[in-house]
Design brief:
single chain; alpha/beta; 10-stranded mixed beta sheet; 7-stranded mixed beta sheet
Length: 312
Amino acid sequence: MADFGALDTFGRLKLRQIPVLMLVFVVCLILSILISSGFKRRIMLVFSLCAVSGLLTHSLIYQDNRSCIYFLNVGQGDCALIVHNDISILIDGGNTGNGETIEKTMDHLNISQIDIAFISHLDTDHCAGIFELWNRNKIDRMFTSFWNESDEMDQLKKSGIKLPENVGILTKGDRVRIDQDLCFDVLWPKAPSDGGNDDSLVLLCELYKTKILFTGDISIEAEEKMDKSLICDIDVLKVAHHGSRFSTSDLFLDDIKTDAAIISVGYNHYGHPSREVLSRLVSHQVDYFRTDENGCVELNVSDDAWKLDYYF
């Protein structure tokens, strides 16, 4: 099995549980095959049929709303794919070549089109994969915090990536509401200057009752300037700048009080994730997942609960 472990809302690492009714069905079916007595075999078959009926009834009557966020393993880059009802949203898209990785995931999930793509900032390890998908007509709308001439824009042009002429601009105070169960509040930046790390879109995603904070590559300086009133109780944090020691300060972790964290990272020469950040997360009792070690990390969100799974 690809899925090995999970973190539920109580922060416990556990093996994936087998539904009890399914287990009863399998055991009764095996016993009905092994038992030679006709009467006992019929009893086991009746029990197995009752278990299946109960399982189907439960799934039909008690089926709750459920959505998923896939933190994809795109190496040294960021990429999160949100699947909610019939809507698909990207937050960053990894580096050059990661468009194919995202598209394979879309094919696996039977997704033909990305409705909205948020670009945290103009570093290629966050936006190149999105532009690759846009050039394949796979993205309807794109938003970022800065879209103008800058060193970051020059680097994108030199990389040979074909860029769109216009991208929607979001800044602090903007809100993108998808439906009654999903919305994004822009917490940063207030006045972007060059599209670099500290101009990263910081998005508070509220999915049902779960709060997920996406931080791009902001530094400690930007963390200190942010208004913390909306993020004093976060369920899941996407750690800034791949776990750089210049982000995710002790003070920031004190303010947001998160339960779990995702570090999107791959092979690199920068020492990401830093020992300092890992130590900070441990000292604040924050369970964390790393895409370089755990592969794709899946956040399952329902009406009143959330759970993190990881895949090799």
